[in-house]
């Protein structure tokens, strides 16, 4: 590895990653714990989300109020959230403050107070968030599309289910914390104006005692797939289409990925020019690549008026099929330039890089350098893409509609 | 000015701004034209939005398709939008590509094709966007809150009105383009790995012929204010509260601004801790400062279940009033650290800096350095804030509710 990138796995299984970006004043941290929506206990969907809120309500020597006061006093811009595989805590600030804040995050992981009142309030918020989805049909569509397309439990929403949340108790939360807030396969990543040797010492001090615990294997069930209609009294019809692609770790990943960029990468990509600009069918349309650990997917979305919904769905499916007739050299060239521009821009953001190296390590067990990414994109040519598209017809499709009227699925 | 910051106004009234950030590979451009929602002709609200779409549908030697292909082939990450005062075009990429793309933006401003088919399609999209708002009650609330709180026409939404959009014609668009896409008081700002001398030459070449045209004065009418209820069959009630603050250009701006950061700056700020964390009333709550050219406002938002809506509104108004009893030294200190952290993070983003220097120039006629911002924040102390709060009671309030049931306005 170049001197910019570093990794080290401690005895308890926690991995430290770092990207030194000496031109920056700031640093960002991403902490990924193996508590994701897919590892929520089967009858307690949403547990990780409630827990991610609860651990912030006091930890170590600080009560809830003191903890948020302290983190704000360091100037940490913070985020947290639950994904398919992980609960993620992130922060960014002046580099020295991020390092200083690490001890508080060690408290949050290992010594949270888990107070009863905080649990009740946090669960209430989670229930409110679920109720709020009814007012956001677009978000509802994206949740349902994953639910119907991904193998269970990978398609579960981290928001959980109302009935499951109602059954949660503080004791269950405490048990869940012990089981899943542990060291094995957890990741702590830093990017910015940091020094790896110093980080290693500090992470060992703060997280060296984090226990490693055996993780339950996940029982995977095939997805429902096919067609799902969710009735909603909306002004717009929200359309989702999903189908399989290569996993991100596949040797041909960038070949498949660049084909999708031709479909939906920039303003000159096909979905935008054909469906929005030429035909004026939709205000919003797009398709993007999404990866589980060993399965890639294409998720496409369109939001349109109820009258144009059927034409939009037909047109979307047509464009997806037409992609497999092949791409032009020019459109591929633009797609390559677009992806490389994304890499350059993210290379100037400590937050983006901390997230990216953590994701890389989770997916591949190592960090990819920015040069490696650029070279992988440059190695793709129009012959490779067209051979791939010819050999891999899209489908079967999972189609989800949220709106007032069912649509006819194109054959 | 330090060597990092540059400004120059050309003979036609266009101002070039630059912030040289030599550590970066990228650059960002922000182009602000005096075509905002507030200068839309009175009976053609939404005109600037349709025009901002239409000018991208072919310009100079390139038709619509060739233009988007070309901009994508430069790897430009682009954005455009219409605000209260301006239509804004932005892009970011490798610095050399941003400079290269300038000629295409000169075409877009001065030599757009304004095709009839593109006009029809663009207007249709604008009408769809308006219809879509019915599915997004939170966004609807924020639009209505500005409409009821700001003096007209500053509170108009850039999305326009259905009846107005339907009356637009291509000839009206052409006339509007001639009137408003002009040089006087327009701004072009760059931040990143750029050289000011080179930029100045290129901007002069590309935009030197942009005509200066007299701008119509805006006729200002007092806002409706008070209380407005917008019935919607939603699962949540969306609550907006607005009241006056100091304009951004006022000497005491940071005093007023830091008081609002104490109310709603970070996780330890009052609205979040009192209304969300302690009382669990809302999933989402916040207040932020917003500035017109000569009027500052505080806009507060809360989204909650219909049952808790009244309690939430009461609690929100109580916290706003309680702020004026004064702030603690510690909370002010955290607010100062938080704002300074924002400045540090944005100082590492070419896109954020290009936008910030353009905004500064529009508001003040000059660029503020990052050090100037930090010093202005450091100069605020708890005595100043509390004296300001004591002398400036909040209100009168503009209160807007979007939801199924009217609420009682607290007295």
Description:
2 copies of one chain form a homodimer. With 411 residues, the first copy, chain A, is an alpha+beta fold. Helices cover 44% and strands 20% of the residues of chain A. The first copy, chain A, has 15 helices and 13 strands. A 6-stranded mixed sheet of chain A has the order 1-2-8-3-7-6, with helices on both faces. In chain A, strands 9-13-10-12-11 form a 5-stranded mixed sheet, sandwiched between helices. In chain A, strands 4-5 form a two-stranded antiparallel sheet. In chain A, helix 9 packs across helix 15 and helix 10 (270-278) runs antiparallel to helix 11 (309-323). The first copy, chain A, starts with a strand and ends in an 8-residue tail after the last strand. The mean pLDDT of chain A is 96. Chains A and B meet through helix 2, strand 7, helix 4, helix 10 and strand 12 of A and helix 2, strand 7, helix 4, helix 10 and strand 12 of B.
Key descriptive features of the protein:
homodimer, 411 residues, alpha+beta, six-stranded mixed beta sheet, 15 helices
The share of residues in extended strands of chain A comes to 15-25%
What pattern of helices and strands is seen along the backbone of chain A? Answer: EEEHEEHEEHHHHHEHEEHHEEHHHHHE
Rg value of chain A: 22 Å
Strand order of the largest sheet of chain A: 1-2-8-3-7-6
Major sheet of chain A: size, sense and barrel closure? 6 strands, mixed
Helix content of chain A: 40-55%
For the largest interface, the chains and their residue counts are: A-B, 70 and 69 residues
Name the average pLDDT of chain A.
96
Beta-strand segment tally of chain A: 13
State the helix count of chain A: 15
Low-confidence stretches of chain A: none
Give the structural class of chain A.
alpha+beta
Whole-Å distance between the termini of chain A? 50 Å
């Amino acid at each position: 590895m170049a001197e910019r990138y570093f990794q080290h796995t401690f005895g308890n299984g926690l991995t430290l990653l770092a990207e030194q970006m000496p031109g920056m004043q700031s640093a960002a941290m991403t902490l990924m714990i193996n508590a994701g929506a897919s590892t929520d206990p089967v009858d307690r969907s949403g547990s990780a989300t409630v827990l991610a809120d609860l651990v912030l309500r006091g930890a170590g020597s600080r009560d809830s109020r003191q903890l948020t006061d302290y983190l704000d006093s360091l100037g940490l811009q913070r985020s947290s959230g639950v994904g398919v595989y992980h609960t993620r805590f992130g922060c960014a600030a002046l580099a020295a403050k991020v390092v200083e804040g690490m001890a508080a995050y060690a408290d949050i992981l290992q010594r949270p107070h888990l107070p009863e009142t905080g649990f009740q309030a946090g669960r209430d918020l989670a229930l409110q968030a679920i109720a709020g989805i009814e007012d956001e049909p677009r978000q509802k569509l994206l949740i349902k599309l994953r639910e119907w397309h991904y193998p269970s439990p990978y398609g579960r929403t981290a928001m959980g289910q109302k009935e499951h949340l109602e059954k949660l108790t503080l004791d269950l939360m405490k048990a869940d914390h012990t089981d899943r807030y542990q060291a094995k396969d957890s990741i702590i990543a830093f990017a910015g104006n940091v020094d790896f040797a110093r980080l290693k010492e500090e992470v060992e001090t703060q997280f060296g005692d984090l226990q490693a615990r055996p993780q339950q294997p996940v029982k995977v069930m095939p997805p429902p797939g096919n067609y799902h209609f969710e009735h909603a009294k909306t002004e717009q019809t929200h359309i989702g289409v999903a189908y399989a692609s290569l996993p991100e770790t596949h040797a041909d990943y960038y070949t498949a990925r660049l084909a999708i960029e031709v479909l939906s990468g920039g303003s000159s990509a096909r979905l935008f020019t054909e469906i929005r600009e030429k035909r004026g069918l939709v205000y919003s349309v797009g398709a993007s690549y999404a990866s589980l650990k060993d399965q890639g997917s294409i998720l496409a979305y369109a939001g349109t008026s109820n009258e144009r919904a059927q034409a939009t769905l037909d047109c979307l499916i047509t464009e997806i099929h037409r992609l497999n007739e092949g791409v032009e050299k020019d459109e591929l060239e633009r797609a390559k330039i677009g992806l490389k521009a994304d890499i350059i821009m993210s290379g100037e953001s400590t937050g983006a890089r901390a997230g990216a190296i953590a994701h890389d390590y989770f997916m591949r067990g190592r960090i990819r350098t920015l040069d490696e990414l650029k070279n992988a994109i440059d190695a793709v040519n129009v012959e490779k893409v067209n051979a791939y598209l010819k050999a891999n017809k899209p489908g079967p499709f999972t189609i989800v509609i949220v709106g007032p009227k069912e649509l006819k699925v194109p054959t």
